[in-house]
Amino acid sequence: MKTFIVLLFTAFSIQFGIAQTYSGNQEDIDKILHNIETFSSHVNTSNYKMIGAAYTEDAKIFPQRGDIIASRESIIKYWILPEGVKTMNHKITPVEITIVDDTAYDHGYYEGTTLKANGDKSSWKGKYVIVWKRVGDDWKIYLDIWNSI
CATH number of the domain at 19-148, out of 3.30.70.100, 3.30.565.10, 3.40.50.300, 3.10.450.50? Predict the structure, then answer.
């Protein structure tokens, strides 16, 4: 019986666990991970100015439905929620981060919950790819693409 429980636990761990692979300078990886957390924090607090600051000046986003959106100003406008709507939870879970010189890319999953103006909650999740650029001592989002699962 003990062996069966260990095998069952192992099977579930393999099936539902997300292996993370990070390649590059650890300080840079830590900075990107920090920026990912900070980005979600700004989404959760509707801090649109700081959401915009996470992107390079020449950034582009590729939302699931719609055209490519270019420029920090246009990206900020995209992220602004309608009156009465609030993101209650936004979380990004990177699966892989790879740094090559002054460029990095990562991909993984996102999830969250939105509170609608009528009080209803909507949960969502999906997958994403981000291309990062080193800007001075920081890492900023250059290309951001996502779609729902």
Answer: 3.10.450.50
